[in-house]
Amino acid sequence: MKNEKQTQISEVGEFGLIERLTKNIQIKNESTLKGVGDDAAVLDFKNKQVVVSSDLLTEGIHFNLMYVPLKHLGYKSVVVNLSDIFAMNAVPRQIVVNIALSTKFSVEAVEELYSGVHLACEKYGVDLVGGDTTSSLTGLTLSVTVIGETEKENLVYRSGAKPNDLLCVTGDLGGAYMGLQLLERENEVFKVNENMQPQLQGYDYILERQLKPEARGDIVAAFKKIGIKPTSMIDISDGLSSEIMHLCKNSNTGCNLYEDKIPMDFQTKKMAEELSINPLVAALNGGEDYELLFTISIEDYEKIKNDPDFTVIGHMTNVSEGTNLITNAGSAVPLEAQGWNHGK
Amino acid sequence: MKNEKQTQISEVGEFGLIERLTKNIQIKNESTLKGVGDDAAVLDFKNKQVVVSSDLLTEGIHFNLMYVPLKHLGYKSVVVNLSDIFAMNAVPRQIVVNIALSTKFSVEAVEELYSGVHLACEKYGVDLVGGDTTSSLTGLTLSVTVIGETEKENLVYRSGAKPNDLLCVTGDLGGAYMGLQLLERENEVFKVNENMQPQLQGYDYILERQLKPEARGDIVAAFKKIGIKPTSMIDISDGLSSEIMHLCKNSNTGCNLYEDKIPMDFQTKKMAEELSINPLVAALNGGEDYELLFTISIEDYEKIKNDPDFTVIGHMTNVSEGTNLITNAGSAVPLEAQGWNHGK
Which residues are involved in binding Mg(2+) 4 (chains A, B) (predicted)? Predict the structure, then answer.
């Protein structure tokens, strides 16, 4: 907390708090006709289609305030929702943010949280148009709803993949999970000895993947530019394995995923080695990478093959062939939604 | 809980739970193109304007599961959001429901909660199109976002009232608050002696106002039928006093509210007397009545004067005259957002 003044929320009241949190909002999107300040926001999407997604984050389950700065939390809670809109090949325009807080939070703490929300809005060109700020008996809960738009013909669902389509992923995987493992290790050390300084050097990338992830709006823009419409798409919030199974189930296909093709950063592998975790597990089941997983028809391969943002990691098959990980040793292991190596 | 079987959520898993909760959903609205099952819902409002509102409810603050049945809670959490859409003179079409639960809740308990959500969707013709079901360390948190639509020219904001407009309210006020007082009294008795049966006879109306409120979609339909467009409107969630001040502030007017005009039910007054509470306080500051407070131009008076759903409770004035309660004794007392008798 940079600001050392701590004002009790009861001193400013609910309406005073809302005014402090929303006074600097400037509307950026044509489709936002009325933001905060009435019973509802008013939007106009004209002839475009509207996409809506929402998530709920609770303290102690989705985040630990021992090592997650409030500003990062505000930023991330917006970004993870934007990611769902990009996964539809659409563009986010508005968000609604609901927050429940216990009395342990000061006005300044809430402002710090909101500074992250505003920063994400700024970066992604999204308008904060409403929300509820209320009390909780314990801890912090955040609910974010995001609204986006696109032309009907641009929308990409989970259900359009066909056998032989290429399975592709953006960026690299497993980093957010390894960043979390590192933060938890250092938090345990800190709990034993408060004078210990956390050992985080050399791991800035995976820490940022965990604490300040970005949503791949740049990819949606790139698709448009290079003239690709994926046949199916989903964002990676729960881990590659689970997301692939969603695509296969919704598209009624199987798939072959190649272990040696899964993109992983050097820091991810190094941290995994340090903690004796198989990095493949981080990629398959770690989650929170917020990369896009999508399928394209084979004819589109030329358009993406030289772009380092994209990696072809497998291909779709007939549903009867199942969903398989082809290991480096060449054997096929069935993927499992809750972890391919579950029960071993 | 009718169903005595108690299944742990961990037995069915997150995806299993979502499937149980959403399997019977049938889409009712043309504007709902795709509901649950992808990264986002897909909606199409064509040339209509879109209104969005959202609320967060937390256990122990907004509801007490000691005396609020889960089905009622699910119902009410939807209704209070629909009320915001009606307050814009619009029609709700879709909702998104996020729920965080601690492990004390069984699958059957969540289904009971959702049965209330589904019942409200059924009654108000709204589609449940998405949401998040997740864990919490303690208690239950519900976040509902509702999306509605109307033609641009129908929208009513808080800001359109003019001096001399009539201030009107639907239904009666203070009932939900007195219902809550009754439930809390009986809960205290029960905590002292578990064998005591609650004394609720003769108070069915105020109990229903608290436990199973309705949103006034019928009024929005009536406005259309009788050809009225209010000059401003808000729903009564925080109490009459606070809502009047919102209309006055947003419209830059003052108002005179007449004590003797405020509609209250017999049960509300009787319970107030029994508990030695001034019923006026229940109406002004109690909240949760979910009636509509609106202003109309004087020329429209003829259209509403014989309708028992509407009561004229005052009129708007120049902003310099302030926001006043004209008491039965004829004196003017300034309204206060946190209660007109605050600090006395």
Answer: 39, 53, 84
Which residues touch A36 (CB under 8 Å, ≥6 apart)? A18, A22, A25, A128, A129, A130, A131
For residues B134 and A14, which has the higher predicted lDDT (pLDDT)? Answer: B134
Cα four-point dihedral sign A18, A23, A25, A27: positive
Q: Is B77 at the interface with chain A, CB within 8 A?
A: no
* B58/A15 Cβ within 8 A: no
In three-state form (DSSP H/G/I as H, E/B as E, the rest C), the secondary structure along B81-105 is: HHHHHHCCCCEEEEEEEEEEECCCC
Residue A239 token pair: 């881990």
Q: What number is the ipTM of this complex?
A: 0.90
Q: Inter-chain contact B40–A52, Cβ cutoff 8 Å?
A: yes
Chain A residues 227-246 within an 8 A CB cutoff of chain B? 233-235
Q: Do A40 and B338 touch (CB under 8 A)?
A: no
Q: Is the pLDDT of residue B45 over 80?
A: yes
Residue A340 counted as an annotated binding residue: yes
Cβ of B43 within 8 Å of Cβ of A34? The answer is no
- Separation between Cα atoms, residue B146 and residue A130, nearest integer Å: 12
CA distance B17 to B110: 9
Query: CB-based contact (8 Å) between A110 and chain B?
Result: no
Confidence at residue B299, expressed as pLDDT on a 0 to 100 scale: 96
> For A204-214, how does the pLDDT look when each residue is reduced to its tens digit (9 = 90+)?
999 999 999 99
Residue B162's φ and ψ, nearest 5 degrees, are -125, 155
**Which pLDDT tens digit goes with each residue over B151-185?**
999 999 999 999 999 999 999 999 999 999 999 99
Average pLDDT over residues B275-299: 95
Residue B285's alpha-carbon distances to A134, A289, B259, B336, in angstroms, are: 17, 47, 13, 9
Q: Identify the pLDDT of residue B171.
A: 97
* Closest chain B C-alpha to A227 CA, distance in angstroms: 22
Instruction: Measure the CA–CA gap between A97 and A224, rounded to whole angstroms.
Output: 29
Instruction: Answer yes or no: do A96 and B52 touch at CB < 8 A.
Output: yes
d(CA B80, CA B63): 13
Which residues does chain A have within 8 Å of residue B13's beta carbon, measured at their own beta carbons?
A: 338
Q: Which residues contact B330 (CB under 8 A, 6 or more apart)?
A: none
Say yes or no: A183 contacts chain B, CB-CB below 8 A.
no
What region does A171 belong to: left with phi over 0, alpha with psi -120 to 50, or beta? left
Q: Do B58 and A141 touch (CB under 8 A)?
A: yes
Q: Is some CB atom of chain B closer than 8 A to the CB atom of A327? A: no
Q: Look up tokens 């390894």; give the residue.
A: A178
Domains of chain B: 9-154 (3.30.1330.10), 166-334 (3.90.650.10)
Distance in Å from the first CA to the final CA of chain A: 44
| Mean pLDDT score across all residues of chain A | 92
Q: What pLDDT, on the 0 to 100 scale, is given for residue B37?
A: 87
d(CA A102, CA A190): 25
Binding site annotation covers B307? no
Calculate how close chain B gets to A264, using CA atoms only, in Å: 24
Contacts of A94 in chain B (CB under 8 A): 52
B200 in A contact zone (CB under 8 Å)? no
- pLDDT tens profile A229-259: 999 999 999 999 999 999 999 999 999 999 9
